[in-house]
Amino acid sequence: MDTKFSVALHILVYIAETDKVASSEALAKSVNTNASHIRKITRLLKQAELLTSQQGKSGFSLAKEASEIDLAKVYRAVYPEKSLLNIHEDPNPACPVGQHIGQVLEPTFRRIEEDLMTDLAKESLADLIQKLYQKASN
Fold first, then answer.
1. What confidence score (pLDDT) does residue 31 get?
2. Measuring CA to CA, which residue among 62, 66, 39 is closest to residue 50?
């Protein structure tokens, strides 16, 4: 299963909360993966203007306040052109189901994706950080 979204959120929370240099290596240790995987995801986050880094300096910082980064922005950063739900291609046109299944499923799939983005937009990185501290204090 693809975990880019959860890794991207992990990276952003770590960067927001660390007082150390948030290098690819430090992030990789926190996520428990390799630094090249982290660099792929941080590249997407930089392209979406959620992260910044300075040439010649190690580490990343948030490009915006944590309260300004909603989860929908992060999702779209790591999946810029990916649909959550896809309709299979080339169903049998001679089949009564195959003739119409795409047209029947498309509005439902679109609504589900829109609902997901609406829900993700309601939660910010700051909200995740607050939940993290609440969980840690229990």
1. 97
2. 62
The gap from C-alpha 82 to its chain's centroid, in whole angstroms, comes to 11
Model confidence, pTM = 0.88
For position 130, which CATH number holds?
Answer: 1.10.10.10
| Residues 72-94, mean pLDDT to the nearest whole number | 92
Task: For residue 61, give its domain range.
Answer: 4-137
Distance from C-alpha of 24 to C-alpha of 16, rounded to nearest angstrom: 14
CA separation (Å) from 35 to 6, 25, 42, 46, 104? 16, 5, 10, 16, 43
Cα(88)–Cα(23) distance, rounded to whole angstroms?
41
Q: Which residue has the tokens 């309601």?
A: 122
Domain count of the fold of the chain:
1
| Per-residue pLDDT band at 58 (split at 50, 70, 90) | confident
